[in-house]
Amino acid sequence: MKAMGFYNTGGPEVLQEIDVPEMLPSKGEIIIRVNFTSVNNLDVLMRSGGTKMNFNLPHIPGTDVSGIVEKIGEGVTGISEGDRVISSTVYGCGSCRQCASGNETLCKSWKVLGMHVWGSYAELVRIPSWMAIKPPKSYSQEELGCMPLSLSVSWNALKVAAKAKASETAIIFGASGNSGLFSLMLAKAMGLKTIAVTRSEKKKPSLKKAGADHVLILNQQSPETLQKEAIELTNGEGAEIIIDPIGNPIDSSIAMLSHGGRIVTFGTSLSAESQLSIKKFYWKSASLIGVHNVSAKELNDAFTFAEKKGIRPIINSKLRVAQAQEAHRIFSSSEAFGKILMEHKWQH
Ligand SMILES: [Zn+2]
Q1: For site-directed labelling of 67, which of 33, 95, 249, 343 has its Cα 20 to 30 A away?
Q2: How far is the CA of 18 from the centre of ligand 1 (A)?
Q3: C-alpha 103 – ligand 1 centre gap (Å)
Q4: Distance from Cα 89 to the centre of ligand 1, integer Å
Q5: How many whole angstroms from 294 Cα to the centroid of ligand 1?
Q6: Ligand 1: centre distance to CA 227 (Å)
């Protein structure tokens, strides 16, 4: 089968077409023929070596899966060849206490598709059958190719971790990124007041259209200005929720947080390390919550809510998987707004 993968980490140019043997499903597994996938920050981190983890080469990235079940292994029930499915992104060991209760993200042996095992830049992916979800029919295969990871992590951050309630205010960092945009749309649909934070003034109109009540520009030279603006927009109280997929300095986030507020963090593109002033943290009765992925159940809940509220992905561009180099360049450019979708169309 064909795939876009890499033999060495580096820039987008290391991505190349490779041929790898087709996989067969083991007991309890299924094979999905991937129709659409999309670029996520994880793919870029894997390709560039930014995760600092050891993994076997060649590697095939890709976490989002929208496709059709091609083969089912022994003992698989509830899913058939030809079913239209998406895939959950995280594997647990399948046998520990957390896995048994549907909390595979809390399994000590968690693995992610496209990170620890070959992902959806290949024509076929092999997953345990319980990771497959039959998505709502109202979403096209294209839309599904760019929703699973970003939508579900955003859902987990807002609903499961922060326990967001209507009438609260959410400050969303990295709002024009993949999960930032879904967080913005979800927060708006949940009835929250939304303050989007982005690095580009040019993205203000698009963010307003996507559901931002206010847009603040992140200027790393002057975090105090951002804090002052955020406090003014929340009548001096601070926001109840901060959604942070970029790694904003924690002390700066606490300064914008209301008493009893919650900071949810799941990314480090701005900074991998952060100082925490413990006194400021407990004086505000603040909570700091980390999320790294989402269980299959939460993915399903996220889609049910998104469909009910008419949330659809914003698609920046559509390319073929064979154009993954260009897709990664667009993804990393400051002009990108919305998902970079890729279609599995190969000339055999
Ligand atoms: Zn487990």
Answers
A1: 95
A2: 32
A3: 8
A4: 14
A5: 14
A6: 41
CB 75 within 8 A of CB 28: yes
Top-level class of domain 151-290 = alpha beta
* CATH numeric code, 2-147+313-343: 3.90.180.10
Q: What is the pTM of this model?
A: 0.94
| CA distances to 124, 195, 214, 256, 332 from 233, in Å | 48, 8, 8, 10, 30
Structural element, H or E, at residue 262 = strand 257-265
CA of 104 to the centre of ligand 1 (A): 6
Give the Å distance between the CA of 67 and the centre of ligand 1: 26
Residue with tokens 């996989």: 23
Centre of ligand 1 to C-alpha 19, Å, is: 32
Task: Record the tokens describing residue 124, joined without a space.
Answer: 């076929």
Give tens-digit pLDDT for 89-126: 998 888 899 999 988 889 999 999 999 999 999 999 99
Question: Measured at the alpha carbon of residue 330, what is the angle toward residues 87 and 54, in degrees to the nearest 5?
Answer: 55
